[in-house]
Every structure is written in structure tokens, then in C-alpha cells.
Amino acid sequence: MSEGETLNITRLPFQPLPSVVPPDSYDAHRSKQTPLVIDNGSTNLRFGFATSSTPRTGLNVVAKYKERRTNKPLLLFGEGIEAESGAKAQAKTPWEGDVLLNFDALENALDYAFIHLGIDTPTVDHPVIMTERLSSPLHSRALTSELMFEQYAVPSLAYCVDSVMSFYHNNIPSPPIPFTSDGLVVSFNSASTSVIPLLNGKGIMSHAKRIPWGATQATEFLLKLVQLKYPTFPTRVTTAQTSWMLQNFCEFAIDYPALLRELKDPLKLRASERIVQFPFILPVIEEKTEEELARIAERKKEQGRKLQEIAAKSRMEKLVQKESDLQHLLSLRERREEESKKDWAATLQEEGFENDAALDGAIKKLESNLKRARKKEADGEDMEDEPPSFPLIDVPDADLDEDGLKEKKKQRLLRAGYEARERARKEKEREREEREAEERKEEEERDRDLAGWATKLRKEHDAIINKIKDRNRRKAALTDRKSAASQARMKSIANLAADERVPKKRRKNGGEDMFGADDADWQIYRKINTTAPSSDEEDDYANLQTVEQKLLAYDPTFTAEHTHASLSSQRSALMQAFRPEYAEGDVEGKTRIHLNVERWRVPEAWFQPSMAGVDSAGLGEVIQTVLARFTDTEKGRLVKNVFVTGGPSQIPNLLPRLNATLRPILPPEMPLDIVRAADPVLDAWRGMADFARTDELKRVGVTKAEYEEWGGERIKRWWGGNWNASVPI
């Protein structure tokens, strides 16, 4: 992949060091009972006094561990955990998904919040308004109330739903006008997405719905897709990194199926990708001088020459040995007619053969091996212009001394090699003559009927391609143990492993197992050995190349686009665009993640959770279900102000996608207006602060006396809080 194509490379940002923020001064709020506002989110904890314009924020995660150098126990909160590798394994959040469960972590988080607000009194003498999830479990609420009243002794505690307070902040009227806004709140949270209708400024919690899909699930889904796409990625991809990718590169598709059809074009897919460059370390390469390189090259050349000489000598010795073995087996087979049946059986047993079929099979196999070896030897060496002479061959051994006998043995080997090369040359000459005759015949046929000749070769071309496809399909099917091909392979293995391949009736009648007498019998081993190289496959590719060369040379309708290589590259062009391949030594390229289809696939899970394996209705279907419970007049008031909030609502194209989803399910004349919160992340806290500055907070908060009377599960029912276990005001 060239650098000119990688125009959308974004380097992974480094994790910044945590900043140390000193605690605020408590003097301005001492003994004044300024309301405390706590947005207890599953990702971030936002806290501050109601008179502040912006809250303090920290990651809602706690870690207790022992520092190795001093062996002292430490308690870290928020960003400080990322700076300590030993603390990451001990990190714990108060939330388990969308449920508040770990109250030790919640207590540590609240300690951190109160310390940084400068509260230095034994108790927290401030009214508190705090968020809880839609339809929060009573167990979570009871333990939170117990912690606030028993541990911190707060004078009053009120619970609210964060998305409703974000809606309140963006629609709050000027005093003294009461809050009576209508709207449909769509809240995108870390572990869920909820839909809450509001009429006359009151949340209709009985009609609210929630789906179990949020930013956390989307981040995990993107991480799984990246791991599936890059199973051998050299570095570990973390959840924090995929969360950053989700926030910066993903977006909603207005029409997801149409987008997928458009991205089937490799060029458009390549244009839509975003490339994330992970950190990498270039390998240190030791550079050599020209003299050293020349010396190494000469050494390699000399080693190659020696290896070639050794290989040639070894081939010649093997060829002579095979010639000798073949002559011995042929002379052995000639003795079959001369000896009696009993003596012949004893001779076969002595030579290591069970029967005549085994002997014939060995001779046939040896002849085939010799033919291939002679052909290879003839291709590798030029024949001599004059036949060499071997004068000592016909001299009797008695007339030769010791040196002469050695020379005679050497000449015998040389003559055997020369004769083998002569036979191979004649065989090659005969094959060349046959090939030339076939070419002349084919040329005459081509001159006589070009169209018919081209049609015939086209059919042969298609037949070879189909054969290659069938072989590839069979290889793919063998990877599935439940496929028919895999079952047939196991059956063949079982048959070969059976002790009795000859039926009992045939054994009684003197029948023999003739397996191996026919060359086709040995094909069974190719079927069961899926990793063995196939000579048929090599022959098919060679024949295919020959046919394509002829068609390209003589058939004007057959172009390079019709060749097997071109067709294969066209099919793989989409895969190459989906996940480009880099050269083996390209360390920088190997540490890149190409995001293309994933950019839209992950956000699409909010509207189709089944894509990610979640058995739930999508956001569009949930909104339709909520709207169906209202009259047309009320429905018109709701959809006139569809309000989206929460961190994931900042993903691009959410508003157009919601509009495309809701417009078809509404009457044409019904107005539809979708707006996003001015600050989807902090507006919930600001709405709580706005409400806390009103006198209504005293009316909706549960006092210490009411807590002791009702228990921690009871709350007061009001327009911004949950209804479960609530007491009407």
C-alpha cells in the first residue's frame, strides 16, 4: 500500500498525565446550607455547589492497592489510576452496567467529591440532589440513602433522572413563569438508552422505555470488530482506545442498507476509511559496507555451487540405484514363468512382496519415478556432442589392478548415467515431436474455424476454473467438521483403519485384498490428507495458463479481464479495500487500523441491537411504542420537541437519522422537530443546579426524619424523579 493512498491517518493520542487540582475553599458556603448537586454517572462523577456555573468532573472509578516502593496502601480516584500500572488491575466502579451495586466504591467517590469541595466539617450540612437511573432498583436507592443519611448526615436528599434535568435546563422559562414544557426526551447513557415523554412539564414515567444499549456496549462492540478484523495485531487495543475511536470516527447512517450497497465499490470504501496509527518501534538494521556485502554474496554463491554439485551427485547415484533396482525387479518377474507356483511364492516372500500385484505395483511405481527423474536430468543438463568412451567396461576384472577396478566401477556409473540421459533425451524428443504435431493440428483447426476453436477453448477454460472452484470449496468445507465433505473424509479414514477390509466370504474363497493394484486406489490418501500438496492442482493451473495464453493471442473477444487472475483480483479488491495488506517488513503499516464499515455499523446497533447480538427492540421501534400510548394531540405536542441528550448523542448524523426514522411513522401534517442539548454532557448537572436554586427543592427532598420513618427506598413523587416506591407530595 503506497503512502499516497493513506490520506486519513490519525495518530493515536498519548494519555495525558493526571492534573493535580487543589480543593476549593469552603468559606463561601460554610453554615449556609448551599445545595450540593451530584451527577453520579457510570462513567463520570460530576459534583459541585448549586451556585457554581460548571461542576468538577472526574472518572467514576476507584482503585485500592499497595504501592510497591513504600509498601503503603493507596486509594486512587479517576485519572490517577491510568498513571499507575499497578492500580489498573484493582480498579472498581460503583456501577455494574446500569445498576448501582458497589457502595464501597461509591463511598470513596463521594469522599473524593466532598474533600475537593473543601468540606472540612464532621458532617455534610447541605441539602443534596442526586441522580439515579430510570426505574432504579429499590435496593440501590435504599443503600445510597443509607450512605447519605447515616455516613454523611445530610439534612435532605432528593433524587432525579439526569435526562429530564437536561431537558429542564434547555427549556427553563424565565421566572416567574412555571415549567410547563412538552417534549420527548431521548437519553443516550453509558449503559442504556431511555425514552421519557414529558407533558405540561411533568415526566410520564409510567410510559418511559429503556433499551440495554449504550456507549459502553458500543465500545465493546467496536473492540470485538477490530479484534476480529485484526486477529494478529501487534499491540493490545484497549477499551479506552476504542472509546476514542467511537467518539472521533463513528457516525450514524441515514439509510444503512443503501450505504452498504454504496460501499460495495472498493474505491468508495477506500475513500470512506479512517486510519488509526498506533505507536510502533522501528527495528534497528545493521548496515554493511560494499566490501562486506560483496564478500557475503561471494560466499553464498560458492555455497550454492557446492550444494548444486552435491545435489547433482546424489541425484545421479539415486538414478543409477533405481535403474539397478528396476532391472532386478524385471528379471525377477521373468522368473515367474520358469518357477513353480510354490517356489514363486517363496521367492516373492523372500524379496518382500506379498503377491504378484505388489510386485507389478512396485515395478510400475519405479518406472514412473525413473521417467520423471530422467526428464528432470535431461532438462537440467545439455547432452554431449560426442558420446563418451568407457574403455575399461569390457576388460575382465582379472586383467585389472586395484586402481583399474576403481576406475572401471567409476566408468560403469558414468555409462549408466549417460545411458539414462540418452533415454531421457529420446523421450523428450518424442514428446516434442508429438507436441509439434498437436500444435500443427490445432493451427489447422484454428485457421479453418476460428469461432469453433475459440468456443472449444472457452469451454475448456470454464471447465478448469470450475474444477479449481470445486477444489477450493471442498477445502473450505473440510474445515467444518459437520459438512458432508468432512464426514466423507472421516468415513474414509475409518475404512482405512479397519482391520478387515476383505469380506469374510471372499476370505473363505481365497479372496485377497487387491488395494493398490489400481493407481486410483491411492487417491484416497489425497482425500483424507487436507494439507498435502496436490499435483492435480498444479497441472490445472498450468493448463489454465496455457489456454488463457492461446485465447489472448487469437481470440479478440477474450481480454485480460476474462482471465482467472483478473477475476480473482476483482473479487479480492473489496477485501483489499476493507483490510489493506502491508509488506512483511512494514512495521508502521502493520500497526494501523483501518476503520470503514465499522464507522457506521457500530452506531447502527442503537437502531438494530440484534446486529450486536442483543435481543431488544431498536430505538426507532421503542419511540414508536411510546408514542402509540398517547392521543394524536398529545403525540403532536411530544414530537414537536424531540430532545436528545447524553454523551453518545454527539455522534454525527444522529438528528438526521432520527428524523428519517420518525417521519414515516407520523402523519404527514404533524410537525417534527428534533434538537440536541446545548451541552449533552454537562446540561444534566446544570439543570439540577437550576432546580436546586429554587424553593421547590425543599418540597421534593426527603428529610432525615422522613428517611427514618419511611426507610431508604421511599422518595417523593415529583415531575423530575422516578415513580417507583414514591409518595405523592
Automatic annotation (TrEMBL):
Residues 374-450 are annotated as: Disordered. Pfam families: Actin. Residues 418-440 have a biased composition (Basic and acidic residues). Belongs to the actin family. PANTHER family: ACTIN. This is Actin-like ATPase domain-containing protein. It comes from Somion occarium.
